[in-house]
Amino acid sequence: MNHPSFLALDHFALEPRAGAVQAHVDACSRCRAHVEAVRVAAPFPVALEALPSRRPRWAWRPALAFGGLVAAAFAVGIVTMATPSTTTFTAKGTPEVVVWLNRGGVVTKWAGQPLRAKDAVRFEVAPAGFDTVTVYDEVAQTVLHTAAIAPHGTSLTPAWAFDGEAEAERLRVIVSRGAAPPTALRAGPCTAQRDLLCFRFELRREGT
Amino acid sequence: MSDGIRQAWQRYFSPVREKCRRVLGDGDDASDVAQETFIRFWKQGPTEPPRVALAWLYRTATHLSVDRLRSRALHARAVPQPVYGTDLEASTASRQLLAQLAREADAEELEAAVLSRLDGLTHLEIAEVMDVSERTVRRLLARFDQRAQRQEESP
User: Fold this and answer.
1) Looking at the partner chain, which of B11, B39, B129 has a beta carbon nearest the beta carbon of A51?
2) A180 shares a domain with A104
3) What is the pLDDT of residues A37-68, one digit of tens each?
4) Residue numbers in B near A58 (CB within 8 A)
């Protein structure tokens, strides 16, 4: 029997909802036992009452180290556009993509420098009216990430670690209205199409 | 404030404790790590919505548990027998393997392996918890598997 993950079971224990997890828990005595076990509160250690109050709600964001720093960067208005290799948008109100580089826990805006193994990058997208972001790996010809995003404001993609095995990673960030069409997800120029804008980034390995 | 921390404890401590037990066994280490995770959570974690809170707790508990596993490996301490897992036998084998590789594997590899092998998370769930892409998760798990295979083949 395939069981839901413990994360899914724990989520179900906190927020029961009808669905596949509910059906499984009803049928599986072991998963039901887990859900019942985590619903039993452990005795509260009185010593914890001495802990200081939580910080204000907004302040937990830096706990997500990468995202937090990026959010902070936006807050002070230092975000400028990255340099897509084929298309550049600078006018106000057009989509922008910024690449953030995390090297050993230090986050900076990527300025085209070569990457080292274990560097991580992620994209900050200001879609300016577009509602979908897609990240496409040209080398592996794989969609790494696609998600609906708020058409205004900014959105962060997940981070990708650079393994240093290939000489270069070539990634496209596509903002579109609706899902990116297959024509945007194959070899060929990274150009604007109807309801779609394409940014291309070549991330080279250090020493190549 | 007191009510707030009690409420958070009642909702989230038990899942964290069970998660730590899956990695570290039913001993003092699991209790210590679970409590440390909760204290960090109270100081800087998101208490709502539960899905986000749980992802944060899983990430932190996994990180701290892997630190403890590596510390055990360095000091050659015995690993208590597991009490939980997606399948008891497979879980036991996975935990023994994790303990054996704790000294040499990267922390990220171990964290992905813990979430996959002991917590039964899908790649998508691991990506969400670790705040990386699914591709990175696949790479981490592939490296861990290669390392495990070398370990099995070594005399």
Assistant:
1) B39
2) yes
3) 999 988 888 888 777 766 433 222 222 334 43
4) none
Identify whether A56 is part of a domain: no
Look over chain A and give the mean of its residue pLDDT values, rounded to a whole number.
Answer: 76
For residues A152 and A88, membership in a common domain is answered with: yes
Residues A96 and A135 reside in one and the same domain: yes
Q: What is the pLDDT of residue B111?
A: 93
Which domains are seen in chain B, by residue range?
A: 2-153 (1.20.140)
Dihedrals phi, psi of A79, to nearest 5 degrees: -75, 125
* Whether the Cβ atoms of residue A13 and residue B15 lie closer than 8 Å to each other: yes
Per CB-CB distance under 8 Å, the chain A contacts of B6 are 44
In a domain, A73, yes or no: yes
Give me the pLDDT at residue B152, please.
76
Helix H segments across chain B?
2-24, 28-44, 50-75, 88-101, 107-113, 123-130, 134-153
Beta carbons of B19 and A6 less than 8 Å apart: yes
Sign of CA dihedral B101, B104, B109, B110: positive
If asked whether residues A34 and A76 sit together in one domain, one would say no
Q: Name which of B10, B11, B120 is nearest A6 (Cβ-Cβ).
A: B120
Examine residue A57 and state whether it is found in any structural domain, yes or no.
Answer: no
- Residue to substitute from A21, A35, A40, A48, interface B, most B β-carbons within 10 A: A48
The model's pTM is: 0.56
